[in-house]
Amino acid sequence: MTVAREERPDGTVVAIKHNTDPGAAAAEAAGLGWLADAGAVRVPAVRSQDDEWLVIDYVTSAPATPAAAEEFGRGLARLHAAGAPAFGSPPPGGPVDAWIGRAPMRNVPGEDWPSWYAAHRIEPYLRLAADQGISLPDVARVSDRVDSVAGPAESPARLHGDLWNGNVLWSADGVWLIDPAAHGGHRETDLAMLHLFGCPHLERIVAAYDETAPLADGWQARRPLHLLFPLLVHTVLFGGGYARQASEAARAALRG
């Protein structure tokens, strides 16, 4: 994927993204629109889109501030509360065969989170890892026991889906979210991703979130379970150390 900044004759500044992965531009455009519809967080407006090209508003960066972090935490809680038709549901108009980064990600609705998470967010990446000669028996054990470690049942949340620090942009008017892998899922997954590589003022973000939409008891202990998805994605994309981290997360998830 390539990204270029362009200033238009009318003074607007846009980001032009080129991605040849089938359906990637359509998935991103649909995800941005779905997140925007919630009216909870800032996302760049989609100016145009075709099979390979996406043009969106450009976000000018500024230092992260505690006030912006707290606003973001409250907004993220509202975004999740906007809901989704089912776990695994794609954004309206979005493809079933989507992407998270350069890894494939299928948005297939399921009836309950534990069985859907095992079937569509753990097992496909275990197979891809195995194809690369990477064996992850601890993760496979978690897949068989998600029911026992999933915690209280939750309604499907409207997830950004790839909420690592690089997709959280700080600007003079607050936080903007980019590059979603949006789908219906468990809200703790987005929060776990924020912890994966760190995020400025993360404690303030989480405190404001929890104040707006209290998290179920034990959510911190369930973080390794939710981290399995991004760690498996990174394993199939980059291998090595991420496989070790996925195994460590799996063992922590089983310990609870």
From TrEMBL:
The keyword Kinase applies. Keywords: Kinase, Transferase. It comes from the Bacteria. Pfam families: Fructosamin_kin. The keyword Transferase applies. One of its GO terms (molecular function) is kinase activity. InterPro entries: Fructo-/Ketosamine-3-kinase, Kinase-like_dom_sf. SUPFAM superfamilies: Protein kinase-like (PK-like). Belongs to the fructosamine kinase family. This is Fructosamine kinase. It comes from Actinophytocola xinjiangensis.
